[in-house]
């Protein structure tokens, strides 16, 4: 909410830590009958004192004028903003180091609105590969038939490879967006975000227009990778995953500077994918334990990834912490990430039959197609989240029949290792 007294992020010249800010920033108990926790504001609309206030609020929420009140436009209608949504947007902004944030009803709503706001027919999207299946389908099956072309690059740590793809993209039209998912889903490949910023500048010098650099930070952020500090213009999330963290809601977010986000924030109420107040309230609750949950899950995941890497049934583990010291991707990882994440993939010998048998043998780990929750989940990407791709396309991206994606939750790592050990044995992969 908009009380200046609850927007402190410094004490005595020292910036407060994120885990402290997640418990108080942006909410004034004095505006809610002294409640320590925000109530759920279940209302569709908000009263304003005068007709002139109504004019001002509509001008602000439509983007026709800048908001004068701290925290953004005043409350008008829950498709535009809501106290629960506003609290979460402000807390995510202070965590990510963004000027503004827009919450959405899903991660795909955030990505779709951002790409639609930035592109016109005849434009081109330059993007990393692999991408989450939904993002890939959006670019292929929605944007492309509407006249927005796309060019992908596979090696996101080679500036020359990205530049080569950029040249191919410029040959097709105006490059409006550079979109990257790093680490990628499901193989944890990395993209050099700073290099994307440099290449965006080169495209601007040649085409007279700087493309927006948009980074999907779902796997590591907002704690362990800061794309905006590295040169991205907008960062997007599936809030469903680590930020919400309990597998009980669906939401998304886009964050960035006010100028970069202006078109996104104008388009959101027109398309209507706003987040409901109850889900926003639940996210606010989750932010209070975000640091604890992500740190525990990431520590467990690295230990489990190293254990899997030693197993004879496993032919490869895709976790950034296991990158060889002399690999180019290792340098990018150490430069832009402070942890490797809790979602990674591993490949079992024996292909799809062995992968299916392993998955079916899990006793603690559940089969499901999400990630980042408090429980550990596993899926077979080739037949689920990346099944829209052809077999040739999947293999080119490293999504083989034997690949299993694993999201480590908050169970004790010893118990998860025991479950993996018996499942690998039951799977018969040798």
From TrEMBL:
InterPro entries: Cys/Met-Metab_PyrdxlP-dep_enz, Cys_met_metab_PP, PyrdxlP-dep_Trfase, PyrdxlP-dep_Trfase_major, PyrdxlP-dep_Trfase_small. It comes from the Bacteria. Pfam families: Cys_Met_Meta_PP. Gene3D superfamilies: Aspartate Aminotransferase, domain 1, Type I PLP-dependent aspartate aminotransferase-like (Major domain). Keywords: Pyridoxal phosphate. The modification N6-(pyridoxal phosphate)lysine is found at residue 241. GO terms for molecular function: carbon-sulfur lyase activity; pyridoxal phosphate binding. PROSITE patterns: CYS_MET_METAB_PP. One of its GO terms (biological process) is transsulfuration. Its cofactor is pyridoxal 5'-phosphate. Coiled coil: none annotated. One of its GO terms (cellular component) is cytoplasm. Belongs to the trans-sulfuration enzymes family. This is Cystathionine gamma-synthase family protein.
């Amino acid at each position: 909410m908009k009380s200046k007294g609850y927007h402190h992020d410094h004490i005595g010249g020292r910036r407060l830590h994120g885990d402290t800010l997640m418990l108080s920033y942006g909410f004034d108990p004095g505006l809610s009958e002294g409640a320590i926790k925000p109530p759920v504001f279940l209302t569709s609309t908000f009263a304003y004192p005068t007709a002139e206030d109504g004019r001002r609020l509509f001008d602000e929420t439509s983007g026709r004028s800048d908001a004068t009140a701290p925290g953004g436009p005043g409350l008008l209608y829950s498709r535009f903003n809501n106290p629960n949504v506003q609290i979460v947007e402000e807390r995510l902004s202070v965590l990510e180091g963004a000027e503004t944030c827009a919450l959405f009803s899903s991660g795909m709503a955030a990505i779709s609105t951002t790409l639609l706001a930035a592109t016109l027919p005849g434009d081109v999207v330059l993007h990393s590969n692999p991408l989450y299946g939904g993002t890939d389908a959006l670019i292929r099956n929605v944007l492309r038939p509407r006249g927005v072309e796309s060019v992908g690059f596979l090696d996101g740590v080679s500036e020359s490879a990205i530049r080569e793809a950029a040249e191919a993209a410029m040959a097709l039209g105006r490059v409006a967006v550079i979109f990257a998912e790093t680490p990628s889903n499901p193989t944890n490949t990395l993209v050099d975000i700073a290099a994307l910023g440099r290449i965006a500048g080169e495209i601007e010098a040649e085409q007279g227009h700087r493309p927006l650099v948009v980074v999907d930070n779902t796997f590591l952020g907002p704690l362990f990778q800061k794309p905006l500090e590295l040169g991205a213009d907008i960062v997007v999330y599936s809030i469903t995953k680590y930020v919400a963290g309990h597998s009980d809601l669906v939401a998304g977010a886009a964050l960035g500077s006010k100028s970069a986000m202006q078109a996104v924030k104008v388009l959101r109420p027109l398309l209507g994918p706003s987040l409901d107040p109850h889900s926003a309230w639940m996210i606010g609750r989750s932010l209070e334990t975000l640091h604890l949950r992500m740190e525990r899950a990431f520590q467990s995941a690295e230990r489990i990834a190293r254990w899997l890497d030693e197993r004879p049934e496993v032919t490869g583990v895709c976790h950034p912490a296991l990158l060889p010291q002399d690999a180019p991707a290792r340098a990018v990882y150490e430069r832009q990430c402070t942890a490797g994440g809790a979602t990674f993939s591993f490949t079992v010998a024996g292909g799809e039959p062995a992968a299916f048998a392993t998955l079916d043998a899990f006793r603690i780990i559940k089969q499901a197609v999400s990630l980042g929750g408090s429980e550990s989940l596993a899926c077979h990407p080739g037949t689920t989240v990346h099944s829209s791709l052809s077999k040739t396309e999947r293999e080119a991206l490293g999504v083989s029949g034997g690949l299993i994606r694993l999201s480590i939750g908050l169970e004790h790592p010893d118990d998860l290792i025991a479950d993996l050990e018996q499942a690998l044995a039951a799977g018969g992969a040798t």
